[in-house]
Amino acid sequence: xxxxxxxxxxxxxxxxxxxxxxxxxxxxxxxxxxxxxxxxxxxxxxxxxxxxxxxxxxxxxxxxxxxxxxxxxxxxxxxxxxxxxxxxxxxxxxxxxxxxxxxxxxxxxxxxxxxxxxxxxxxxxxxxxxxxxxxxxxxxxxxxxxxxxxxxxxxxxxxxxxxxxxxxxxxxxxxxxxxxxxxxxxxxxxxxxxxxxxxxxxxxxxxxxxxxxxxxxxxxxxxxxxxxxxxxxxxxxxxxxxxxxxxxxxxxxxxxxxxxxxxxxxxxxxxxxxxxxxxxxxxxxxxxxxxxxxxxxxxxxxxxxxxxxxxxxxxxxxxxxxxxxxxxxxxxxxxxxxxxxxxxxxxxxxxxxxxxxxxxxxxxxxxxxxxxxxxxxxxxxxxxxxxxxxxxxxxxxxxxxxxxxxxxxxxxxxxxxxxxxxxxxxxxxxxxxxxxxxxxxxxxxxxxxxxxxxxxxxxxxxxxxxxxxxxxxxxxxxxxxxxxxxxxxxxxxxxxxxxxxxxxxxxxxxxxxxxxxxxxxxxxxxxxxxxxxxxxxxxxxxxxxxxxxxxxxxxxxxxxxxxxxxxxxxxxxxxxxxxxxxxxxxxxxxxxxxxxxxxxxxxxxxxxxxxxxxxxxxxxxxxxxxxxxx
Length: 630
Ligand SMILES: [Zn+2]
Ligand SMILES: [Zn+2]
Ligand SMILES: [Zn+2]
Hints:
Layout: H1 3-16, H2 38-53, E1 66-70, E2 85-89, E3 97-101, H3 104-110, E4 123-131, H4 137-145, E5 155-164, E6 170-173, H5 177-193, E7 216-223, E8 234-241, H6 271-276, E9 282-284, E10 291-293, E11 298-299, E12 307-308, H7 311-333, H8 336-339, H9 353-359, H10 389-392, H11 423-429, H12 439-455, E13 467-473, H13 482-491, E14 497-504, E15 515-519, E16 522-528, H14 531-534, E17 543-546, H15 557-567, E18 571-575, H16 578-590, E19 595-601, E20 609-610, E21 619-620, E22 624-628
Helix pairs in contact: 2-5, 12-13
Bound molecules: zinc ion (3 copies).
């Protein structure tokens, strides 16, 4: 092209072109980015669409710069954040989009009064929303073949990297797969965060003045889609405005009611959407206990352990109590990896039990019915039983569940209770496949067995082949897991016997005072009522156990602990998280008991990590064990 014509065209574009920004469609196409799967492209398009519908351009202009931090610097190949500064362009006309920059200086140099300054060699990672008619054929084909979600009627995002050459020419390239991941996490996070920006007092409502926002910093967890990461992996994204603002510097004159922040950003999240997602994951704000959709919850940026409905609650909670435990929680979060069991081949993280059960093909089957809420109309202990063992285990195949039969490998050994160190050993001697999730249900009987054989150090009756009486306080769902408890009998390997007395208010009255032999060597007696009321009618136990007991949550523990103190019988407790252990120990000390067996991770905890509604702390059924009078 002739040089003068080119200049003319440039001026023409300047004047009548697409307004602020760099214009639409660049000819790049995500399908040709190496390492980006079609499924991830779909996720990027749906994240773009979700953000588009929150309409950030209504309030945000290019001069409103945001600082972004996605995960750790070391997560990225350059060992630094790829594009740590972002702005929204097009709010005053022209194509709506997002520009992301490698530095704040780049952003400032490039941000002109009306449009983007042509600064040579500045790279801009862009998302530009473009009408279909202006989209290059390659992108049209991609949208059709992958049936990608549109952001609005006839609007699709184009992701590319733009750069002016030293001659002022505009060049585009495809983003790298890493850059696409970066922009994805930003899209997800900013959609949640930007509605929380509060309009500042100065400059407000004066004509022609740009709205200014109060300093802001927030961290949200974004879940990588399955296509780019292991299931359930989260990345913390911190967004601040203006860049460099820190949390402590925030000053807040008025405190609006937290409910304000419960409103979804726009009408985007209609009741319809919530209903259409049958496994909506609800979290609970640690401060106000309000339920908040998982996608819209925030967590403490330092420890990442506690959930909030919004920044107001976070600030209040920080002042009132979180400040003193944030460091402790951070340490607990750092044990995530240590607690993860890597020997199993089934999903070991769940957000919703129904969903997890679906994923392993066991939803609403056999004993598994007790693990989700689908059968909650049946009281504990009254779930209709299956007659065949394999049906009790949800129709698992041979080699996937423990047959109600002796341990074959132990036939020719001396009859002694089998001592186990953990799941790996158990699965091996039972010849179970590591794809079998039965550990989730066996956690209850095997935790008891572990306590009986390993944790009671002095005069261990069971190891010596004698009878052991166990008082099992507060059973609930366990009442429907009797086929799993039968496994304890086989582990005894022809020696000793166990009498378990399950005592609790959840024992159904028609089953109270009944005995079920769940195997020749294991008997289970059921007693309805509170332990403190019933203990005197029962024979003295050798050990008391309470699983997932939530000592801090129930006032009735006071009476039970008094009995344990009076009798001096060893008692073991399991709790789901370390935080619950810490609080539980306080309850025990308060009752005058001494913790003689310190808190330890339970080798027979459920391998599936779940989460408490208001916390991200590592949480497992029977996760940790500790004891008194041992
Ligand atoms: Zn709240
Ligand atoms: Zn914290
Ligand atoms: Zn269910």
